[in-house]
From TrEMBL:
This is NADH-ubiquinone oxidoreductase 17.8 kDa subunit. Residues 7-22 have a biased composition (Low complexity). PANTHER family: OXIDOREDUCTASE 178 KDA SUBUNIT, PUTATIVE (AFU_ORTHOLOGUE AFUA_8G04320)-RELATED. Residues 7-41 are annotated as: Disordered. It comes from the Eukaryota. InterPro entries: Nuo17.8 (IPR034444). GO terms for cellular component: mitochondrion.
């Protein structure tokens, strides 16, 4: 096997060194070096840049024509469209300004209310609010005596009723 491998390597070296120059790839340019007399003329297209330039010229002339006012002096549709876009931007600017002002005022009010001192007095509408807890599993003596609280609110209620009655009597005369 070794002899075969050595012989293959020798043949590869010989093929590399004895390669003829004519076998190498050479490029030929058919449209160059004056070969026109042999019928090798190549028709080259105009290319994309020509068509883009032509379209730009025609397009700019079209835009110019439609942007000019008509013979009556009325502005064109393009001008009206851009004016509408400008008004739309001003409308959004006004809305954004009003929204920002509202959010700023809301933040100011929030900080004002959170920073204000709170009243410790809570007006009770009914005296049963003190005993709204569960009546089960309450150890003896854990409910406070509410008789004084009930008497206070009963007196306040009677005073309010008396004041209302006096006001109605004065209004009926």
């Amino acid at each position: 096997m070794s002899a075969l491998r050595q012989r293959a390597a020798q043949l590869a070296r010989q093929a590399r060194t004895t390669r003829p120059a004519a076998v190498r790839n050479t490029r030929s340019y058919g449209s160059s070096h004056g070969h026109e007399e042999h019928g090798h003329n190549v028709e080259e297209p105009l290319g994309a840049s020509f068509y883009i330039t032509a379209a730009a010229v025609v397009g700019s002339i079209f835009v110019y024509k439609i942007s000019r006012p008509d013979e009556n002096g009325e502005v064109s549709a393009v001008h009206k469209y851009f004016a509408k876009l400008a008004d739309y931007g001003k409308e959004w600017e006004t809305k954004n300004h009003l929204m920002t002002a509202a959010l700023t005022q809301a933040a100011h009010d929030k900080h004002l209310l959170l920073g204000a001192e709170r009243s410790k007095h809570h007006e009770l509408r009914f005296p049963e609010v003190f005993s709204t807890g569960s009546p089960f599993n309450v150890p003896a003596g854990h409910y406070a005596n509410m008789d004084a609280v009930v008497a206070h609110y009963r007196k306040q209620h009677l005073d309010d009723e008396e004041r209302k009655a006096k006001r109605l009597a004065a209004a009926s005369q």
